[in-house]
Structure formats: structure tokens, C-alpha cells
Design goal:
This protein has 153 residues and is α/β, with parallel strands linked by helices. It has one domain: Rossmann fold, CATH 3.40.50.9200. The protein contains 6 helices and 5 strands. It is globular.
Length: 153
């Protein structure tokens, strides 16, 4: 992954940028040296063609992605449309990353658990590490450095 070769990320959406959708991209933006391209276009709601036009638009957006991300709370708002997007991702052999609800207020549904390669919590480092590992099979081993004052011992 580099600036010239960003990871193509798709976040399940319901044709609006809800709080979890926006939070995901705020977290991705906050990480240094994490380059991605968002293939989701929630503003691209088809105005004609009905349900089939909506499904076709979602298929095209997912096809461009390397990884599909599903925040649990988005699933709760419209399970049928979220399931459709997960099914398209599976059919296209796109790995799926589930994110628990923010604050752990909603249990992750079985539909997500059964389809996701991994489920992570809302933590910018954990999310970007999971994306790197699942989408590009990049080693994401990192060490946490904890500094302390030895005089406190």
C-alpha cells in the first residue's frame, strides 16, 4: 500500500452518510501512512429504475473495492439492503470486515458474524491494521510502547 496504490475500501451504506459511515472515514483519515480510496458513493442514489437500479449501483460500487466494511449499526438500520451488499461482496469474493457498534451498544448480528473475515472494535489502529491484513495480506505487527517513570516503582 502506498499513495500511488491505495487500498480500495467500500463501506456498506444506505445511500446516506450516517454517523458510523462518517466515523469510519474519520478514523481512516487520522492514521499516518494509511492510503485508501473510498469506492462507496452514498450520494449516488438512482432517481429512476426502482429497486433494480439501486442494486445495480451498489454492485458497481462494490466491484471496485478490495475490501467491504460493515459497521454493525448500519446493518440494524436496514438489514435487507445491508444483507444484499454483503451477498454481493461474497459473490465477488471480497473480504468483509465487521465493526462492532460504537460503544458496544448493539450485538453483532449472526449475518455479519457468518460472513465477516474479522470483527473489530472502534479503534483507528485496529481497523487500519485489519484492513491491511485482510485486503492486502500485509503484516501489521506493531508493538505498543508504554512509557513509565522508574522512580514510581
Amino acid at each position: 500500500m502506498s499513495e500511488k496504490d491505495p487500498i480500495r475500501v467500500y463501506c456498506v451504506h444506505l445511500f446516506d452518510e450516517d454517523a458510523d459511515y462518517q466515523r469510519l472515514f474519520e478514523y481512516l483519515e487520522s492514521r499516518d501512512r494509511f492510503f485508501y480510496m473510498n469506492t462507496a458513493k452514498p450520494e449516488a442514489m438512482p432517481t429512476a429504475g426502482g429497486e433494480e437500479a439501486i442494486k445495480e449501483e451498489l454492485r458497481q460500487q462494490i466491484e471496485l473495492a478490495e475490501i467491504v466494511i460493515i459497521p454493525a449499526a448500519i446493518f440494524e438500520r436496514n438489514p435487507e439492503l445491508a444483507k444484499f451488499q454483503l451477498s454481493v461482496a461474497q459473490a465477488a469474493r471480497k473480504p468483509i470486515l465487521g465493526i462492532q457498534s460504537f460503544g458496544g451498544t448493539v450485538a453483532v448480528r449472526k449475518d455479519i458474524l457468518d460472513r465477516a473475515t474479522d470483527i473489530v472494535e472502534w479503534n483507528d489502529r485496529v481497523i487500519t491494521d485489519a484492513i491491511r491484513k485482510i485486503a492486502r495480506n500485509e503484516d501489521t505487527s506493531q508493538w505498543e510502547v508504554i512509557e513509565f517513570d522508574p522512580t514510581d516503582l
